[in-house]
């Protein structure tokens, strides 16, 4: 009678011996994913160190096997979350920012609801109910939760823990109707006046404002750049001498946990790398900034702290909010300048031009999220209808 084989992903007895050089070799037989048993060994300065290194190597080897997870349908959902996070790190396909965002959304939005259930108990009905309840609070939260829940359960299907992904059959989330908020001309006058008054106020102690906040607002409005993209503009990205002055948007500012704020050498998407012509008011703001700048290297940032380090996007948002509250102007955000510029370009030059300015890969994104629709129908329709149906005089 054939002796039963050890399960895939398991190892036998660890044997350790001392070499002539005084080091220790720990060795065992390991049954690999293809069913073959192989010798695996490591060396260490001491016997315990060699054995620890061997066990660590075997654990890492397990993680690379496509079907081995040590879990079943009766495992808890938090166990799947830990396995999913490890799998993302092994694949290393996501940017660090996206990886942190996925983990945050999983831990704050999804895990509290599913923490006490097993994978077998997560069906279509439970997922559907969860998303609908979350959508009552916030459509965006429900959308973000749907993404990470689908990814985690998809991993369970690929690694043969679950037979199917229940997220494939949940009902679609319905985006609530929303009109993009843009600034009116009167809003912009109030914003400019409020920033000017704040920058020119008398200062009894401490450094005086250097004008950067007002200049940032003008360049945001004149380029429709995201706040992170704008703060990542370097002196070498400026081309102000030609008949049509322009700047190149080719990076963004990122601030991650346990990392210094720094310039990332690419923006949100490949399409977001673009060269933008500068209107007069944005050009004048940049020229004013250049007259005061201390650092002149091409890689120096156009907008930076007094010691040349990058501004964080949150600090600029907070400063803008505080200044506007003092001026009595509400709901002023960097992204609203972006929508305002896009709406103006759409009304004058059309949707495709607005999409190019924003750096979008699909004009439908521009139309849905950035453009305030003009409610006024072309008045020529009245003349046409009069010609068709009007009574003779």
From TrEMBL:
Keywords: DNA integration, DNA recombination, DNA-binding. Transmembrane segments: none annotated. InterPro entries: CB, DNA_brk_join_enz, Integrase-like_cat_sf, Integrase_catalytic, Integrase_recombinase_N, Integrase_SAM-like_N, Tyrosine_recombinase_XerCD. GO terms for biological process: DNA integration; DNA recombination. Pfam families: Phage_int_SAM_3, Phage_integrase. One of its GO terms (molecular function) is DNA binding. It comes from the Bacteria. Residues 75-157 form the Core-binding (CB) domain. Residues 178-383 form the Tyr recombinase domain. This is Site-specific recombinase XerD. It comes from Microbacterium saperdae.
């Amino acid at each position: 009678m054939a002796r039963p084989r050890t399960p895939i992903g398991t190892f036998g007895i660890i044997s350790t011996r001392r070499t002539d050089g005084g080091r220790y070799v720990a060795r065992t037989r390991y049954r690999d994913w293809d069913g073959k048993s192989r010798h695996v060994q490591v060396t260490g300065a001491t016997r315990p160190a060699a054995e620890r290194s061997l066990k660590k190597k075997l654990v890492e080897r397990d993680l690379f096997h496509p079907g081995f997870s040590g879990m079943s349908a009766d495992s808890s959902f938090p166990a799947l979350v830990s396995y999913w996070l490890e799998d993302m790190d092994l694949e290393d396909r996501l940017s660090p920012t996206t990886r942190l965002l996925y983990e945050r959304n999983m831990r704050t939005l999804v895990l509290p609801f599913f923490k006490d259930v097993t994978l077998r108990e997560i069906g279509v009905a439970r997922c559907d109910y969860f998303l609908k309840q979350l959508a009552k609070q916030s459509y965006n939260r429900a959308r973000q939760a749907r993404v990470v829940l689908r990814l985690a359960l998809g991993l369970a299907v690929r690694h043969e823990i679950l037979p199917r992904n229940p997220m494939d059959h949940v009902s679609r989330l319905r985006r609530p109707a929303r009109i993009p908020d843009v600034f009116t001309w009167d809003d912009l006058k109030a914003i400019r006046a409020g920033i000017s008054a704040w920058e020119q106020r008398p200062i009894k102690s401490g450094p005086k404002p250097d004008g950067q906040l007002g200049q940032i607002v003008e360049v945001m409005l004149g380029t429709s750049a995201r706040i992170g993209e704008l703060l990542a503009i370097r002196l070498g990205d400026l081309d102000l001498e030609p008949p049509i002055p322009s700047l190149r948007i080719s990076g963004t500012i990122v601030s991650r946990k346990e990392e210094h704020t720094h310039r990332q050498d690419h923006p949100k998407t490949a399409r977001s790398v673009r060269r933008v012509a500068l209107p007069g008011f944005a050009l004048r703001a940049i020229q004013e900034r250049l007259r005061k700048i201390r650092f002149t290297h091409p890689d120096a940032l156009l907008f930076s702290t007094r010691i040349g380090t990058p501004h964080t996007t949150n600090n600029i948002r907070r400063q803008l909010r505080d200044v506007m509250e003092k001026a009595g102007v509400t709901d002023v955000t960097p992204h609203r300048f972006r929508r305002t510029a896009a709406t103006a370009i759409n009304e004058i030059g059309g949707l495709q031009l607005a999409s190019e300015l924003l750096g979008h890969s699909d004009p439908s994104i521009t139309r849905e999220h950035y453009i305030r629709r003009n409610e006024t129908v072309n008045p020529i329709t009245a003349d046409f209808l009069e010609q068709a149906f009007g009574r003779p005089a």
